[in-house]
Amino acid sequence: MSRFDARFAWRRAVNGLALLLASLSALIGLFFLGWILWTTISKGGAAFGWSLFSHATAPPGDPGGLANALVGSVILCSLAVLWATPLGIAAGTYLAEYAHASKRGELIRFVNDILLSAPSIVLGLFVYALVVRPMQSFSMFAGVLALGLIVLPVVVRTTDEMLRLVPTQMREAALSLGIPQWKVTTGVLYRAARSGITTGVLLGLARITGETAPLIFTNTNNQYWSFDPMAPMANLPMVIYEYAKSPFEDWQQLAWAGALLITLFVLLVSISARWLMSGHRGQHE
Amino acid sequence: MSETRETLLSADALNLTDTLLERRAGRDHRIDALFRMMVAAAAAMVLLLLLGAVLVMWQGGLAAFGAQGWDFISKDFWDPANEVFHGLAPIFGTLVTAAIAVLIAAPLSLGVAVFLTELAPSWLRRPLAIAIELLAGIPSIIYGMWGLFVLVPLLGEHVYPWLGENASRLPLIGSWFAGVPIGIGLLTAGLVLAIMILPFIASVMREVFLTVPAPLKESAYALGSTTWEVVWDIVLPYTRSAVVGGILLGLGRALGETMAVTFVIGNANRLGALLEPGTSISATIANEFAEAFADSHRSALLGLGFLLFVVSFVVLGLARVLRARLNRQGGQR
Known about the structure:
Chain A is mainly α and 285 residues long. Chain A has helices at 2-46, 51-54, 67-98, 103-117, 120-135, 140-165, 168-176, 181-192, 194-209, 236-245, 249-284. The termini of chain A are far apart. Chain B has two domains: 1-68; 70-332, MetI-like fold, CATH 1.10.3720. In chain B, 76% of the residues lie in helices and 2% in strands. Chain B has a two-stranded antiparallel sheet with strand order 1-2. The longest helix of chain B is centred in the first third of the chain and has 58 residues, at 11-68. Chain B is flat, with a radius of gyration of 28 Å. The termini of chain B are far apart.
């Protein structure tokens, strides 16, 4: 009897200790993540003001804002999403509809997964060697290309997954009416998977909003306003990178304000992506 | 409709609709083939991109590999002015910071995932899981800035001096903590990386834990298992390969991360102790590339990029294989 009691007490003690450690690690994790968020909000909030949006970046000491960087980032990210989305949806369609379980499909899925988690700096180097070196100049065009390469695998994967979630009966019903397959795909399947695919695009956008590494040697940065696709364009991540490393107090404050803007935007996009997905699920269940 | 039927009565009209239909079927067939070709071409692009990236970087690094030989990865001396590029220091820095990050983040993530799936009150589970997933999406440059402005002063003033004084007397690993502690260095980079990959690994683990069939766990509980025994003897064996895959995904992130590292690692291209400034492959590339005007220098950086890509490729490929195994095994062990 006492042997069982001792064994039971031991098991309870191990259980208690393990659960305590698990709760502690959850606390530690949340503590640090909360700390980072808090630092961003308090330091960024302190530097917040309308001048951020009304002034372009300026030399240290002069009143400056982030207007050109904000506009530049919006342009860079939109164009990147714009070229990567159709290509990604097409590739995802091939995987889900034409190469569903084939060896070829598996290979492309594998490669896409590698691209999905490949270091972004490597993709930047690739674009550098491919575009910047032959053209002899950093350019917004190269930056858009590099950012798009990060969006692409996200869209491919979500399109593939979302199309495969569409019930087979829907395809069969449409095909049995004599509708050609391309029309079934574009008119029926895309419509059924629309919110899922949109989620993928939003997730891709969230990924590139704060992406800095691939811009360092493709687009670089520009202190001034520029809309020339063959010249560098100002953008938020690079401004943050340069300003945060600078010794000037006002530049560092601007960097924190930019960091806060990016964090808020990324959180907003991720939350709407999540909301879109939950709405989609609710419709079907 | 009825009009069509009436016209169908005449033989001529019948032939006409037949050819019309045929033409239409032919057109549909052609568009179908075209559509198929287009999406197949897009998929081939994905394949080409990866091949292209590997080839371009291999070709770019070729000059450096040829000029430096094995010294490129085995010796520690980086001197762009004299065109000597021996890259052991960045390679060492990448491996060490990623190792520190995973050693810290993996057990913590396991704890977080267990907390989120077994321990937390049920009303708290979903909001917490969502919060952690959202935090996993915060751009890495924010982690880097936080490291530079908050963590570095803290460690440099309070923690590292103590570590340097006490840990450097330890046998065997004492020399790891030698040097003048100023707050930036390999250990700081490893810590920032650990905080960065923690929510990522935890989210993956949580998702994987949720795939364990409830009857399996309930059976164990019914036999009198404690919560920890269910986690250790039921959940973990069932999900083992996917959990390791998740950790490897985190490792892959830590290996290639640039922005979180470059702010806090010190960017000193030499081999050093953990508390001293060092560098990593990605930090070296980020710092030197824009100022590298000599072809040999650029080639050396592209060569480092190639090495980084190969290492991440192996780690990520392994991660994917391990995670896929969970789906296949489906609980029949």
